[in-house]
Amino acid sequence: MKQLFRIVLFSLLVLPALSQPLSQKLAANRDRRFILEALKRQTDDWNTGRVDRFMTSYWNSDSLTFVSKMGITYGYQATLENYKKRYPDRASMGTLKFDILELDLLTPTLAYVIGRFQLTRPEIGNAEGHFTLVWRKIKNRWVIVSDHTS
C-alpha cells in the first residue's frame, strides 16, 4: 500500500511539472511557425503588388514604429502611406526575398526577429539591407510593433 501511495504522490507532484515545459515548448514552436508564416505571406503579398495586404502583419495602431534611413515613422497609416509613396509601382517594388537570421521568443508575448531583405529590381536597380522586427502577441495575434530597416 505504501508503494502505491508513493507512486500516486510522485505522479501528482512530478508529472505536472514535466508537462508544463512541454506545453510551453509546443506553444513556442507554434508561435515561431506563425511568425515565419506571416513573413512568408508578406513576401508573397509584396511580390504580387499588394502593399495593403503586406501591411496586415503590422500592428494597426498609432503606436507602431518604423525606423529607416529616412527617420522614424509613427503609426500604421503613416507607415502604409510611406510604403506606397516609396514603392508606387511594380518596377520599384521588385521581387522581395527575406532571409531570417534570428528569431527569438523573448517571452510568451514578445518576439525579436533579425533578417536580411533583398529587392530584385532589374529596371531600377536592386536594393538590400537588414531589418529588426519586434513582434508582440496582442489579442492572441502576433503583429509587428516595431520595424527597423536599413
How would you describe what is shown here?
- With 150 residues, this protein is α+β, with helices and mostly antiparallel strands.
- The chain has a single domain, classed as Nuclear Transport Factor 2, Chain: A (Roll), CATH 3.10.450.50.
- The protein is 43% helix and 35% strand.
- It has helices at 2-47, 51-54, 76-86, 90-93; strands at residues 65-68, 71-74, 95-107, 110-120, 127-138, 141-149.
- Strands 2-1-6-5-4-3 form a 6-stranded mixed sheet, with helices on one face.
- The protein is elongated, with a radius of gyration of 21 Å.
- The model has no long low-confidence stretch (mean pLDDT 90).
CATH domain class name: Alpha Beta
Low-confidence segments, given as residue ranges, are none
Number of helices, counting only DSSP H or I runs of 4 residues or more: 4
- Count of discrete domains: 1
Please summarize the sheet with the most strands.
Answer: 6 strands, mixed
Give the neighbour order of strands across the main sheet: 2-1-6-5-4-3
User: Helix content range of the residues, please?
Assistant: 40-55%
Strand content: 35-45%
According to CATH, what is the topology?
Nuclear Transport Factor 2, Chain: A
